[in-house]
């Protein structure tokens, strides 16, 4: 994932309301959202073997974004998608898991990791000093630290708040929160190791094809206080058009 906007334990009906865009090379082999043999609900990165976001019906949730720092990439890093996969397959509590990840933080390129169990949600980045609990409320996460006010993070939080206020919680209405292709002004852009032209293109929430790279799917997750989960994943082609979608509904045990 490269943009996650979410409302955590701040709604009478839902523990988690989340909308996310995954930005990736269009040619990277990927399986769409499905239930794995081990029970996990997620898409799968068929190259690295992990995933960017998923849930286990035992009550676990995890999601990942890359921390973009292309000037400091590792020579032989472990695939970051395994951080999500390993938590969903583990029996560890969220904070315990992240403390263990912290010990091995230098084995990975830059990442942001959210892990939760329905009662607590925790966050860690290998660019942050410590593991921290996510407080109830509205949050945004892109390719910098949690709630760093990049334009697409601020705008995404505003649009999600508006949808919640209006009661517009249909899956497709929520997906539209992340459809914006508006870019930030050059003078506001961070320096993450790419050219200014690419940096500006990456500043949009929904990224059109940039040399084979862009938004490849949009996901919506609604986790009810009653345990019901509704999960939507829309696949996006190189033309920026939604080509197919997967919907799943299940209950946490």
TrEMBL record:
Xref: Pfam families: TANGO2
Superkingdom assignment: Bacteria
Protein name according to UniProt: NRDE family protein
Species name: Echinicola strongylocentroti
